Amino acid sequence: MDIKAFFDAEFDEHADVTAKTRAACAEGFAQLLNRSAESIRHGGKIIFFGNGGSAADCQHLATELTIRYKTDRAPIAAIALTTDSSALTAGGNDLGFENIFARQIEALGKPGDVAIGISTSGNSENVIRALKVAHDINIVAAALSGKDGGRLVGVADPLIIVPSDTTARIQEMHITLGQMLCGALEIELGLV
């Protein structure tokens, strides 16, 4: 293995995807920020959910909002549906894994909230079902995806699609966009 070539190739691909994401996702990001700020201003919350690495991103972002991002400030209401092992295992066992997030949206969501599903492929059945439920009960059904957006196209609005087919690069952009959302929300809500 040529470690130098590998190292350089990874950074080159990351830089390329970063530039393409910057060009392609600004409008969707602005829409997500506006919908999220409007929700928080009216007593709503942001609900994150996804699988695997995306589940970890959900927990990370919900924590940045509820605790702090850059400065000490009032909390921003957010929750990750990926943290309650009892709800996840009961839902998976009793209702099927494809319904673990939809059921929690039904229980915890209210009109005016923002649901943000994260799926690198855009084809995660449990994310798609949860967003459909969110839409049905007047929750903003938003998502972060990659590749061609998969089956999230037409389900999520706004839908931010990272222009890459490489899962690792998509995930890198998702956490970057998520942290940018946290910072932008602090500013938009006048908390910094």
List keywords for this structure.
192 residues; alpha/beta; 5-stranded parallel sheet; 6 helices; 56% helix
Q: Mean of the pLDDT scores?
A: 98
Bin the strand percentage.
Answer: 5-15%
| Largest beta sheet: strand ordering | 2-1-3-4-5
Q: Unreliable segments (pLDDT under 50, ≥5 consecutive)? A: none
Gross morphology is globular
Largest sheet: 5 strands, parallel
Note down, in words, how this protein is organized:
The protein has 192 residues and is α/β, with parallel strands linked by helices. Helices cover 56% and strands 12% of the residues. It contains 6 helices and 5 strands, in the order αβαβααβαββα. The chain has helices spanning 3-41, 53-66, 85-95, 100-108, 125-136, 167-188, and strands spanning 46-50, 78-80, 114-118, 140-146, 159-162. It has a 5-stranded parallel β-sheet. Helix 3 (85-95) crosses helix 4 (100-108) and helix 4 (100-108) runs parallel beside helix 5. The chain starts with a helix and ends with a helix.
